[in-house]
Amino acid sequence: MSDYILEIKDLTKKFKTQIAVNNVSLSIRKNSILGLLGPNGAGKSTTLKMISGIMKPSSGEILFENNPWSRKNLKDIGALIESPAIYHNLTAMENLKIACTLYGLPYIRAEEVLEIIDLKKSDKKKVKHFSMGMKQRLGLGMAIINNPKLLILDEPTNGLDPIGIEELRNLIKSFPSKGITVILSSHILSEVVQVADEIGIISNGILGYNGKINKEDNLEKLFLDVVERNRGENI
User: Which residues form the ABC transporter domain (predicted)?
Assistant: First the structure.
């Protein structure tokens, strides 16, 4: 039985003549956190959108639990890509109950998730009065309502203050112990290093590095080397 929940083989996405993702191959171990690093426009979001079914690959293969990816796998995948899909005129609990209805889950799951994302004390407050950090935690709650095996997060700390970042970081770190594997994208090296077990560095659509984090390595130099090496490759 494979140790990997997700395997990407030669994944490519083209937009007319522009190659956004170029033959990316990557394996993600079960119950781990993979940090996908790269500068803005590197191809991180496009890669995650293909994994989550938002975009169709131009070529390549995605295996989920050792089988070719299909729409039925979405029941085991949660995603927070771009802005959280939440209703601002409702409370957190009401939003989570809507998500439960969509998945055919009992409302007790909404109560469980509200506890996980630490918003129980704000269950009477409408989302429009939430801080940015609270909205991101609710977005995470919506993404895990179906108790996914794989959670995909695209730049989840964008726009958060240091307290919001710390709260979200601790929440993300707790997921592998709950049986949730996480793919986390960011352009901020220091953020990813604090939560990830392994990192992948993508630049100009090319995966230039993938491996475990070694605290003795100069990761900033590694990051810059990959970015510089792949600069202009697809032009």
Answer: 6-229
Question: Is 54:13 a contact under the CB 8 Å cutoff?
Answer: no
Determine the residue type at 113. Answer: V
pLDDT for residue 161 is more than 90: no
Contact, 138 vs 147, CB < 8 A?
no
What's this model's pTM, rounded to 2 decimal places? 0.91
Q: Are 112 and 97 in contact (CB under 8 A)?
A: no
Confidence of residue 1 (pLDDT cuts 50, 70, 90): low
Residue found by looking up tokens 């600069």 in the block: 231
What number of other Cβ atoms are within 10 A of residue 40's Cβ?
A: 8
Structure tokens at 147: 């108790």
Residues forming a β-bridge with 184: 35, 153
